[in-house]
Amino acid sequence: MWISSRFFVIFLLLHLDTTCSEPFEAHLRGPGFVMEPPGRVEFSNSSGGWLDCSASGSPQPTVDWVHADGSAVTEIHGVRRVLRNGTLVLMPFAAAAYHQDVHNTIYRCIASNSVGRIVSRDVQVRAVVAQAYKVDVEVLSASRGCTAILRCVVPTFVKELVRVVSWVHEPAIYIYPSLQGDGKFHLLPTGELLIHNLQESDESQSFRCRSMHRLTRQVVVSSPTRLRINSHRGIISPSVVEHTAHVQVSQDEGAVLLCVAQGCPSPEYSWFTHNGAGPLPVLSGPRVRLLGPILAIEAVTGEDSGVYKCTAGNVGGEASAELRLTVATPIQVEISPNVLSVHMGGTAEFRCLVTSNGSPVGMQNILWYKDGRQLPSSGRVEDTLVVPRVSRENRGMYQCVVRRPEGDTFQATAELQLGDAPPVLLYSFIEQTLQPGPAVSLKCSAAGNPTPQISWTLDGFPLPSNGRFMIGQYITVHGDVISHVNISHVMVEDGGEYACIAENRAGRVQHAARLNIYGLPYIRLIPKVTAVSGETLNLKCPVAGYPIEEIHWERGGRELPDDIRQRVQPDGSLTISPVQKNSDSGVYTCWARNKQGHSARRSGEVTVIVPPSIEPFAFQEGLAEGMRTRTVCGVSRGDPPLKLIWLKDGDPLPDLLGANVTMLDQYSSLLSIPSLSATHSGEYTCVAKNPAAEIKYTALLQVKVPPRWIVEPVDANVERNRHIMLHCQAQGVPTPSIVWKKATGSKSGEYEEVRERPFTKLLGNGSLLLQHVKEDREGFYLCQANNGIGTGIGKVIQLKVNSSPYFSSTSRSVMVKKGDTALLQCAVSGDKPINIVWLRSGKNTLNPSTNYKISVKQEATPDGVSAELQIRTVDATDSGPYFCRASNLYGNDQQLVQLQVQEPPLPPSVLEAAMISSRSVNIKWQPKTMGTGDVTKYLVEFREADPLFVEQWQQIEVKDPPMFNALIENLKPATRYAFRVIAEGSAGRSAPSQELIVRTEPQRPAGPPLSLSARPLSSTELLISWVAPLPELRHGDIQGYNVGYKLSSSGNTAYNFTSVAGDYDGGNGELLLSGLAKFARYNVVVQAFNQVGPGPLSEPTGAQTMEDVPSRPPEDVRCAALSSQSLQVSWQPPPIYHTNGLLQGYKLIFEPIIDDIQPSKDEVESRKTTALTMVLTGLRKYTNYSIQVLAHTRMGDGVVSKPLFCHSEEDVPEAPADIKVVSSSSQSLYISWLPPNEPNGVITKYSLYTRVVNGREELNNEKRSLPSQQAYYEAKGLHPHMEYQFWVTASTRVGEGKSSRVSSQITTNRVPARIISFGGSVVRPWRSTVTLPCTAVGKPKREWFKSDVALRQGGMHNSQLLDSGDLIISSLQLADGGNYSCQVDNGIGTDRLTHTLVVQVPPTAPVLYVTSATSSSILMHWKCGFTGNAPITGYTLFYRRTNGNTDEMQLSRHASSHELKGLVCGSTYQIHLSAQNKVGTSPTSTMLHVRTQGQSPGHPASTALLAPNSTSLLVRLHSWPDNGCPLLYFVLQYRAVTEDPDAEWVLVSNALKPQRRIVVNNLTPSTLYQLRMEAHNVAGISQADFTFVTLTKDGDPPPPEIVHRGHRGQTTVIFANMNLLIPSIAAVSGMFCTIIMVIVCYRHMLKNAQPHAEQANHIQKESLENRANSEAAQRERYYATIHKVSMQNNDKIPETSEDISPYATFQLSEAGGNMSQPHHGGPANTLLHSFMYHERALAEGCSSPPPAASKNRRRHSRKTEPESEESESDQDQLTSSRTESSNQHEGKIKHSIIYHGAQSSTSSDLSPMSEQKSLPRRGRSRYHHQQYQFSTNTTPRHHNSNKMNNNTTSNTNTTATNTTATPSTSSNSNKILSPRGGNLKSISSTFKSQDSIQCHIPTLVKSPSISTQQQKQFHKQQLQSSSNAQHSSASNSNSSSLKQQQPLLITPKLHQLEASNGQELMGLDGIGNSHSPLVACMPPSSQFRPIPHKTIMPAHEPPHHHQNHQPPHPQQQQQHPGTLLNPSTAMLSSKFFTAPTLPK
User: Fold this and answer.
1) Rounded to an integer, what distance in angstroms lies between the CA atom of residue 1451 and that of residue 1433?
2) What is the pLDDT of residues 1092-1106, one digit of tens each?
3) For residue 102, what are the CA distances in angstroms to 43, 130, 524?
């Protein structure tokens, strides 16, 4: 029982608490600050401080204080207290009690209640401990006649707390701060005292400074200070001694900017603002006052913020300072909405609105707080805070805190309330089944807002009210409600469906579950049920007991349902929907039964009630006060009892309303209001209710009320510059609008509406706020209120402005000429009467009675008084300050009028350009006045500063000083102008100022380049040339050009641009466009650009690149066999973009794939066609062919397609090659045969035909078919002594072939020895095994022979004789090859068989030689050596740059030459070659060391390179010769030549890219400089020093002494550069040695020369082959490009035959120290490409100077003059015929032509058309028809060939150090020169004869005259020693001597083998240790053939492989002179050099 009582008590208490809190929550309101503490509080320790903080809210919030870290502020006894009202008190304290955490810290105020908590802004508290301090006086300047500045010096520790309040002028004159001063003394607001116009009398006066502590109010006075005046009255330029760098004020406050300058005379001040695009002068106005060093601005706004510049100037100069004014505009922070109610689970969104003066403020630093704690920034999106999924924890107070950069903070508060949320069940009970007796507890928990109420039902009815049931509920701290139902002793009748219902105003939720108690059926009492008509009735049977089998319902004795609206649910409840009153009212009975048949019944009554329905009603429109109205509320439907009541605005009608309610009947009620007033407006609701429902209907009643005053406006007075609020408020329905108007004239005149503007604010309540009221605001104001009801109301009031005297303009200056009358005027405004007094210097009152020169006038004006002071006959003593002082009842003011006696002004000074643009110049200047004259205007004069043409000055006027600047427009871009300024005043004009020279800025060029042309140089290059734009359209220095190009056929409109550097002087330009599409038309445009940008594009011009060979092979190559001897090949053309020209046709290249020892040379065939298909006929039968197709244009053959293999069809075979028939016994014959040589398919069988012949009679004919593998047959059982004939045919699948010859044999009893095997050629690779058969009949005796030498068993270490007679040879070597014969003999007969064994071995090394080299390519040829009895399958080329990696390249087996491209200029490459056949790879050829053309950069002439100016130096970089290798960059530095040898260098650039020119600036005029330059290319570096002298400042030549000093100090460049010094010495030494060598060689040649006419004739014959080979190779090249290195000393490169002088001699290419002769084993020179020819022989000898070179220049040649432009290329040479070629190859031979002039060499690269750069036709005729003739005739082209045959000799005897010549035996004395060991470069300079000779430089190759046997013998030795040879070669290479390096010949080591016929065999084994190079002079086109000499090296002499091999004695060398060779099979043109012949 005590448990039940406790639950009941808890239930009552909690229920009471819940019901009481419900209405309380509706009135909760979060805290808000009523008084928020300030952001900063300062106080002294003696006074203490306090911080007030109060807040409001419901319930009343509590106020607490916290520190910045959030910790609570506690009380400290005697130091800090927190009062109950929230005030924080900091009590006075002693200095020793100072605590930083108390007295210098940050506090925050916290206001909190049950809704939430808010925090205030940060309050910075600073307590200052009072300290004693002293102040001193500092005098900054004191000069007589000038201004003295006295400064009050305050100690720094109190400076910010102390201000100067006044100065004391002893003894007792106090000077207080003012904006203007009194003329003599001026105390500035910052504390400085200015004393003007110092005189001697001021020196005895003393001054003191009075200061006050801001917090303690303590006043400290300094000690007195006397002035010391400097008697010297000099000019002191101004200097700013004090200025307020940063002034920060709040909006609507006054700002004072201070700028104090000291100087003598006293400076004049000018103020400028920099807030706009440029500096603008500050002008006086209503709010702005200019008071000398003070700029005062009243009522500042945000627009006044910015940078101000104060300028103080006098005749000595000018000084300026910048000041920044910051206006702190107050900002307002508001959170929208400030109260937000959100349902649980919804989204809350707050926005922080930051405004200033009603306008939004930009992005600020915004922080969000929730209940005093900062939120993470994740919920903030800019100024918006979003709270998703709102829960109870989210409700509370939110703050938006805005922190400005200045440090102050602003905040706003908003409250988030939890909106209505329908209940949610958090916990519910479950169904239970129990026995009677125990206690039961059912629990439900729910959440919602408002807190829901939980009720319980049992089977839909209230719980039984007995003592066993106890209900209790309580609310958790989270707002959840928990309810319990406890049943102390459960009984059967307690069973049923229990339901808990949670409900609040937002919704309802319930949960139901059964409680089953075991027992008999029991039905509880059914209470009376009331149902609502039209709704659903759910009637549950309150049955108890368990289990229950069935439940039924009855009505009127009938079981339900009996209607479609009735339904019995499975749980036994009855549902009726919809309920009808008539049919559903009555008694219902429910009965229940269990399985045992026990049942229970109970009945209940159901009553149906109809809910009410109200008819709509409304009030009429337009009701006004005093009218009456009525309306009726009628219920059209509903059961009684009905109750009708009226509500107004949701509340019952108040008694004071005066409304009458009358019940017309029980269904209608009348509401009547007899007299309407404003209080009757509102919503009226009629409520009708009965037991079924409550219904409401609302209508709006609006009573229109005319406006009436709440606050009526009244007249007002206000002082000037003060604020006033004019109040005007009215009320009415609707709410009236307030409009203010101001009278334009008198009170009865017209009015205009007052609108919102600065200093005029219209408030929301109707009041008008006028700020900083001036006189213009005075007048009549009308306030009107109108709401549309009636005419409205209005009131006129008068506003009076009480004005003290004021001046619209403060200080004024009056200038008059000396002797004139000065009129000093002042117009004062203010309330009258106004008294005016004139003062001189602020203290002397001017009185006409005491001063005859003055008179005073005064007259009234509408606004005040106008006064005038006249001073007659003014002079300099009258100059000074005058004050017009005005006073009235409200105050006084004075105006300064400065009088200056005017004199002609001084010329302006400091003329400078403030802004320079392309067409305008803004110049500024400073006035240079002494205060005695006024400038009325300035005259700015300008003209072009052209030294050649002097223009007249042009003039503009500047009429508005003090703007000391002028904008001169319409100028020319990039033009030098001279400016000067003249000041003009009323007293005259000043002299002109100094001239200012200004160059206008450049503009983009306005004109395009001219004369644009484009012409092709090759298939991928176009040369673009143009002329610079017109000078007047350049608008600056042309820095370069943009060249744009695009394909004409391209749809793209954009050009591809390339920039070209210009020469800055408008010269012509050109650009080589490379990498273009072949045979394509391009459009080209050019635009010039300067430092500003690009100009317009030129008109496009078109050009087409040249044709080229196709770059792709034909596509889709197909092949089909038509027959056994024909194939059909078809293809498609190459892609159109790769044809590169007009296709002329196609070439078909085909060859059979056969495995012969050496394929015949005519196997590779080619055929041409223009069709896309071709039938090849006459082919080998049943043969696989390799087929390739290429397309060709007129330029040559294109890329060949990949090999396509195609097989011809089978055919009938040829006859078997041979047949043998021998007798094997008396009755058998053995037949054997060989397969056909041409099987023409796969042999399928053999047919053996047999015929028996008896005499001439054929007895029998027989045919046998034998398998294809069988090549023998033994016919047995034959008749003796009969003749048998046999023949064989072979068959393929096509058919039977031809028969062999018929072989007959007669059977005999005696069997002679016969061999049935066949002999012939046997081919085997080396190191394999071969079996040579020798099968015989007759049981003979066998013998084997090799080359007629009998072989015995074991005679050969690798051979074996078998019993069967076969010979087996294993490990085949080359020496095993030869003829092997087998001989058989049995006494009856003998037979012999021969096998020719061919052993295939790897090939020998090919002979490699280089025929030409350019700067980027090397062309080489090779001759194949011994092929190793197998066809060559390919070559491998190895090459590497010195110290680089080795690269290799696979070449075709048909190739005999190759050109390496893309090489590095001026670099040495190592090249060697190997050949491959099917057996293996040959040793590599001799390593060749080849250097590409090009050298390190040369040195230009100083005059061509440098062009000095006064302050700059022009360096023409394009004049620097690159010597064949393009320049990479320059290093440029300079220094002035001084006495100090270690003067530092000034680096201009260490990586200057090549360009036409560069300008070095910032030089000093008339100064000697030293310039050091380095030029870098890939070949090296060249450095040169130059001296130059800059011109004078005026551009004149420098003084002679400086020039002479430069000549004395200049060092010759060649001695400064070791790269030139060393080669020069070496060249002189080499020339001297060469002369001696040539003399010795000549004598030796005469002594040893012998005629060899026969050999010469042979050579002449071979020359014809060389010519054919040269022309064949010539067709392989079609394009080339000449690149010429720069020449020096104005040298030119000869380019055609006409260019070459007949007297010119040419040198070979650079010998280079890095090239060695092959016989040293070192690098071998390969540059065999220097040539020369003469139009006629020399007539004068070497002493005659050569004639001048041709004037025809090429575009790649260097300029000979610094400013000359390159000429155009020779069109004739570019377009000449391809047939005009010499006997050299097309393009593969690159000639290095060196003009024999002052300098050494010039190289040429491939020309655009190689044949165009070769010798002309007449040169060819000489070489082709005069192969060997040399003569002294001056017209050698007319020599005849007969002389050649008769007069040539070929016997040359050479040594290692001598040059051997072969004189002719005839009178012509033709000579052959063979330089051996000498330098060919220097030969031409040593001959003095008139004769000229031509020497052919041979390359060593295999001679065709050597027999095959000799080749084999030599190659055998080579293979056995290949590894040793290679090792020896490397060793010899390392030990080579550089002293003997010669750059002329590649002469690999030779082995000379003596053949049987006495000829020499020349072989190459890759070892470079031969005795000497083999060099001889030969006819130009002769071929390399061995020419016998006296002594031949024996063939058996082994090669020299020792490293310590010593060269033979010279005598031995004479005995073994070597062999002269001729390149009979080399596909290259001959190389010549020419020189005068030796003297006789």
Assistant:
1) 9
2) 889 999 999 999 999
3) 13, 17, 77
DSSP assignment letter at 372:
T
* Distance of alpha carbon 1291 from alpha carbon 1689, whole angstroms: 84
Rounded to the nearest integer, the mean pLDDT of the chain is 78
Quick: pLDDT tens for 663-707. 999 999 999 999 998 889 999 999 999 988 899 999 999 998 889
Mention every residue, 6+ apart, whose C-beta is less than 8 A from residue 1065.
1037, 1763
HEC string of 1498-1525? CCCCHHHHEEECCCCEEECHHHCCCCCC
- Find residue 387's DSSP bridge partners: 348
Structure tokens that stand for 1218 in this block: 């041979």
Q: How far is CA 1478 from CA 653, 1155, 1163, 1484, in A?
A: 126, 10, 18, 17
Instruction: Spell out the residues 6+ positions from residue 1056 whose beta carbon is closer than 8 angstroms to its own.
Output: 1044, 1045, 1046
Structure-token pair, residue 1339? 């049981």
Predicted pLDDT at 619: 92
Instruction: Let me know how long the chain is.
Output: 2040
**Side-chain-side CA neighbours of residue 1299 (13 Å):** 12
1122 touches 1175 (CB < 8 A): yes
Range of 364-373, 742-751, 1289-1298 with top mean pLDDT: 1289-1298
Residue 1592 to residue 1599: CA distance in whole angstroms: 8
Put the strands of the sheet holding 844-845 in their side by side order: 812-817, 891-902, 880-888, 835-840, 844-845
Q: In sequence order, which residues have a C-beta less than 8 Å from that of residue 1307 and are 6 or more positions away? A: 1223, 1226, 1227, 1228, 1229, 1278, 1279, 1280, 1281, 1282, 1284
Give the CA angle between residues 788, 793, 795 to the nearest 5°. 150
The two tokens of residue 1243 are 């042999």
**Which tokens belong to 1870?**
């033709």
Percentages helix, strand, coil for the chain (3-state, rounded to 5) are 10, 40, 45
Q: Which residues contact 183 (CB under 8 A, 6 or more apart)?
A: 196, 839, 840, 841, 842, 843, 881, 883, 896
Contact between 732 and 708 (Cβ < 8 Å): yes
Q: Dump pLDDT digits (tens) for 1283-1293.
A: 899 999 999 99
Angstrom distances, CA of residue 469 to CA of 7, 128, 484, 510, 522:
10, 74, 10, 20, 18
Per residue in 120-136, pLDDT (tens digit) is 988 999 999 888 889 99
Nearest one of 225, 226, 192 to 211, comparing CA atoms: 192
Q: Which of 696-710, 986-1000, 1064-1078, 1553-1567 has the highest mean pLDDT?
A: 696-710
Site of tokens 């368990």? 546
- The per-residue pLDDT for range 765-794, each reduced to its tens digit, is 889 999 888 878 889 999 999 988 888 899
With beta carbons less than 8 A apart as the criterion, state whether 1188 and 1174 touch.
Answer: no
Q: How far apart are CA 1904 and CA 713, in angstroms?
A: 135
Give me the amino acid identity at 1178: G
SS3 952: coil
Query: If you average pLDDT over residues 580-605, what whole number do you get?
Result: 93
* Predicted confidence (pLDDT) at residue 1939 exceeds the cutoff of 90: no
Q: How far apart are CA 1875 and CA 1226, in angstroms?
A: 80
For residue 1916, what pLDDT is reported? 54
pLDDT tops 50 at residue 1782: no
Per mean pLDDT, which range of 301-310, 536-545, 1008-1017, 1114-1123 is the poorest?
301-310
First to last CA, the chain: 161
Q: State the CB neighbour count (10 A cutoff) for residue 1934.
A: 10
CA distances from 647 to 333, 617, 622, 671, 907 (A): 41, 14, 22, 11, 94
- What letter does residue 563 receive in the DSSP assignment? S
- Say which residue, 1856 or 550, is predicted with more confidence: 550
